[in-house]
Write a structure and sequence with these properties.
The structure is a homodimer of 353-residue chains. With 353 residues, the first copy, chain A, is of the alpha+beta class. In chain A, 46% of the residues lie in helices and 16% in strands. An eight-stranded antiparallel β-sheet of chain A has the order 2-3-4-5-1-8-10-9, with helices on one face. In chain A, strands 6-7 form a two-stranded antiparallel ribbon.
């Protein structure tokens, strides 16, 4: 697959969702599973991992719930393509650096389901949808999970699903939601929100998960604990927190608007001006400008950039994406120039002043 | 005269000049004269000053060299109109605050000649042209000067023209040139240039003369000493320094362009983006953005904003001008909003991307 096509692999969530999608970009359910009778991937040799991958792929081809678009061995992909998969949230940064045999990513043709085989666990099932839609993600993940269950998962009556890392044991479920909360950031309420999330067992991270810094007022919120609660309870909890956060963010925007309309308008329009005209822009600044543009567009202040286009933009300006579009590796300065060029051209389409 | 018309009083230099006008905005000759037999204005009472003004205006009406557009008593103008005259460089900031009788400004209908009567001296003759054109300014100033000489100037064979402030005595001539030197500012050569100018008896000031800070890479360069040299020698010296400065600035721009084209382009286009879209902009930032725009326009990088339009813009975005266009006094925040609005609308005309 050409690198530019790789950087355009389908992702259903990009086109938006039906619920709270003004604030919530995407919902994700991730299940960790292991096959009993095999050691965890870190202690498997190449042959064992290939055997595991073979079993899973074979079973997968028989289930009607996943129509596979592509299956790639990690060590068969160049660095750019691996990084694109990370930028598209299809694999973890860790997985992108793993080169042993039998490390496989599977992507479905609807851009909803993806699998990592032999990452930390034998199997990671991931389901992504737009907006706040965790229960639907869970329903789909459950179908895939059930279809593969015949492989004989490692399961303990007391502890639940067994996983390589004990923090995942139990339901082995992670529900995460990506939110865009610039209003709360302007109001300097992030610290309070993070503390409140932690208190109820949720973590708040940047757009690219663990260790990634937050850019463009985008945050991933997910459950920390997987043990001791049923899946539905966990999902219910995350959904409830997000629903409240969405209301807080909407209120924050209104408040900021009422307090100083002209300053807010100015901030937004300047972001538009910079994104429309800069000739070189670093990732962090670009994400910040896009954050203002999304908020300004939603508040009816800026030209209407459709949410789907905005979602595509925040991926397309990432560095591996940019290099895939160009079809070659770029120097750091060239990346900033390519990023500015892409932003300029894409936003010119929505310039309805 | 309506305040908006006042803020549009003709100024010949705005439409540009024939020489070095890529770098030199305007040339100005100012002559200080006093009538013998009268004390300097500071020591005149209202009656005396009115008598002096009467004499000068009467004589002026008889000379074919000045076609008067307007004659205004300072104390008959509201603060906005007085400030507009300062912003248009037609009167000094000091004069704008003087309210005694007989303090008069005269403006010709070509926007070339203006007089201040009873500022620090009885008479200040000022001639403004576009580009580097000091000798032509001097020729015109000389005609006006000669026509008024019948009033019997205070003149000493040894010291020359006598003036209220001894630093003006002698030729009582000040030749000043307004230059736009962003390239030299980027190269951090301003300190060196100021020192070199001082060494040959020239001063370097901001756009609004003594005490004003430099904004938008605009500087006024003029002779410090008026005594001990003939007028032509003084003018020759200033012209020579400016000609060399113009060459240095052109070389600086080329050098910057060669060293980092994409960074320079980025700076310019961002300035364009901000000027095209900001909803609120302070004077200093607006001047800085316009500086990039002038340079970028001249280097063929940005849309071509004609020099005349650019010159009008740097005056029209000043706060008294903005308030005159609106026809009322504005709060500080309103001024920034009005400035952004004016910039946006005017620059939209040149958006030929």
């Amino acid at each position: 697959m050409k690198s530019a096509d790789f950087a355009s692999l389908p992702l259903a969530w990009l086109s938006g969702g039906s619920q709270q999608s003004d604030i919530v970009l995407s919902s994700r359910i991730r299940l960790a599973r292991n096959l009993s009778g095999y050691p965890f991937p870190a202690r498997c040799d190449d042959k064992k991992r290939e055997e595991i991958a073979g079993k899973i792929l074979e079973r997968l081809s028989e289930t009607p719930f996943v129509s596979v678009l592509g299956t790639w061995q990690m060590d068969g992909l160049d660095e750019l393509r691996r990084n694109v998969l990370v930028e598209r949230h299809l694999i973890s940064p860790d997985f992108s650096r793993q080169t042993g045999r039998g490390k496989v990513v599977v992507v479905d043709d609807q851009g909803i389901v993806s699998l990592m085989i032999n990452e930390e666990d034998h199997l990671r099932i991931q389901v992504f949808l737009g907006g706040l839609d965790l229960f639907e993600c869970w329903r789909i993940a459950g179908q895939v999970d059930e279809a593969l269950d015949v492989l004989n998962y490692a399961y303990d009556e007391e502890f639940g699903y067994l996983t390589a890392c004990p923090t995942n044991t139990g339901t082995a479920l992670r529900a995460s939601v990506m939110v865009h909360i610039p209003g709360l950031e302007i109001q300097r309420k992030l610290g309070k929100i993070i503390r409140e999330c932690n208190r109820v067992g949720l973590t708040v991270r940047g757009m690219y998960g663990e260790g990634s810094e937050s850019v463009g007022s985008l945050f991933q919120i997910s459950n920390q604990v997987t043990l001791g609660q049923r899946e539905e309870e966990l999902i219910e909890k995350v959904s409830g927190v997000i629903t409240s956060l969405v209301q807080q963010e909407r209120a924050a925007r209104l408040k900021i608007w009422e307090n100083d309309t002209s300053k807010l308008e100015d901030k937004m329009w300047r972001a538009w001006g910079i994104a429309r005209y800069a000739r070189s822009i670093e990732s962090r600044e670009a994400m910040q400008m896009l954050s203002w543009i999304r908020m300004g567009s939603q508040m009816g202040i800026l030209p209407q950039v459709p949410p789907g286009e905005w979602n595509r933009l925040i991926l397309d300006i990432q560095q591996a994406h940019l290099q895939c579009f160009e079809g070659r590796r770029l120097a750091e300065q060239e990346i900033d120039v390519a990023r500015a060029s892409l932003l300029r051209k894409r936003l010119a389409n929505w310039n309805n002043e």
